[in-house]
Each structure stands twice: as C-alpha cells, then as structure tokens.
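Email to the structure team, subject: NADPH-dependent FMN reductase-like domain-containing protein model.

Hi all, the expression group asked for a predicted structure before they design truncation constructs. Nothing fancy, just the tokens so they can compare against earlier work. One-line instruction: predict NADPH-dependent FMN reductase-like domain-containing protein, return tokens.
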Amino acid sequence: MTATATATTLKTVIFLGSARNISPPWGGDARLGDRVIEWVKSSLSARASSLGDDVIKHDVSVVDPIDVFGNGGGLSHSGAEMRCPTFFVSDSSLPESTKALRDVIKGADCYLIVSPEYNHTIPPALSSVMGHFGGSNYKCKPAGIVTYSPGPFAGMRAAMAIQIMCHELGCLPVSKLCGLPGPSDLLESNGKPKDPDHRMLKQLPELLDQLEWMAMAMKSQR
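Reply from the structure team: attached below.
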C-alpha cells in the first residue's frame, strides 16, 4: 500500500443456492456447493486488489438457506414456500431474526451468488431466500454469479436465469461468469484447489475484478 492508498472494505454478501443435505444414490457430497463456497470465501480473504488509490478488501457474510429456513433462522416463520414475504408485513411485525437478515442484505455493497442448477434453472431455495426481500434492499449494487454442476455444463443454464432475477431485483450482474464443472475434481472438500493453476479456476479473479469495480462505482453514487 502506498502512502496515498486508502483501504476500502466492501460488505459482500454470498447467497448459497442449495439447501440439499443428502448424498445422491451414486455417491458424492451431501452438498457439492460447500466445496465451492469455501473456495470463494478463501479467494476473497486472500485477495489484495486495488482500484486507483483504493485497496479493496471484503467483509463477507454468508446467507445459507439451510440456516435461514432452519429452526430459529431468519425466514423459519415463512418457510421456503414464502408464506410471509417481508414486503407484505409491517416492520413492527417482522421477527427480529428476519430484520437482522434483511439488514445484512440491505447493508451490502455487492453480492455473490454461488448456486447449482436444478431442472435447468434456479434452485427454489435461492429464489425463495432472495425473493423474500423487495428490490429496494438490492438496488444499485452489483452481483457476481458462480455456478457449478457435477457434469460438464457447470450450471450455466441456471446462471442465465439468475441473471434475469438479479436484474429484476436491482442487483445488476456483472458480465463475467464463473462456472465450475465437476467441483469435486477441482477442489478438496475444504475448498482448497487440487491444482491452483487449473484454467477453470481462473474465472473467479476476473469476475471479482468486475464486481469490485462496479461495487466501488455504485457505492460512490448511492
């Protein structure tokens, strides 16, 4: 950091798209996305990028649907079927855990969405978590999309649908996508790359470059 450099911390919220907690009959992880999100988190922690005189760091919060819809979670009262969207409920009637989750989402500078592809589109857990909160919580902030699948297509069909959802919520997706085919071949269970130089892992830094640029620009105008 130079004498004139300024440290800037972006509040970065990661939405995990899968609530799966069972291993498939053919074997494998109960939730393949755990590898991916650990890799994303460690990449953010190790990252030291700069924009002009700003050195960028990330303060990361993870929104996991297993926790959010579980006992005591911020949306446990509503359920994944979205019985109580927050924008249909007065603020005074919202549970404190829901308000806390809303404040984390609304206070973000940028979002990362780490998601699989279910039936060629957005997993219901992801659309429910994000859809519980109105667009005013997301507007004028950028989003980056990271998808994965056990097969060769890396969840890209879900990425296309997630882009549309983000546009409508107001968290505009950056153009660079990151798609991982077969994460268990690329990452250890703790998210550590098996081959740090693998070409598929080079997508994320480029996505984060765009995300940080957009986050800083939008932050200065909000």
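The mean pLDDT is 96. The chain is about 35% helix and 20% strand. Ping us if the truncation boundaries need rechecking.
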